[in-house]
Fold this sequence. Notes:
It is a single chain. By secondary structure, the chain is of the alpha+beta class. The protein has one domain. The chain has helices at 8-11, 27-35, 59-64, 71-79, 82-85; strands spanning 49-52, 55-58. Strands 1-2 form a two-stranded antiparallel sheet. The longest helix has 9 residues, at 27-35. The radius of gyration is 13 Å and the shape is globular.
Amino acid sequence: xxxxxxxxxxxxxxxxxxxxxxxxxxxxxxxxxxxxxxxxxxxxxxxxxxxxxxxxxxxxxxxxxxxxxxxxxxxxxxxxxxxxxxxxxxxxxxxxx
Length: 97
């Protein structure tokens, strides 16, 4: 499934979910981590979620490219979109299809 840029994946995970990235391969992520005030795992959404003109983007992807995102983030939206499960109705920027 192609990402619809609705942002629901990023809203349903903890704010520091992005810190599961590969900091050895992507040292810029460590620099980013050092400059961001990390919240608790229970707070949401992911700190890297950015919404522009009704579309959700990952700040890591915007700055460093899709390959720099944590593997779990690259795979997560394709597992099962909320539009099929209807689990996040009313949240985010997703449009009705």
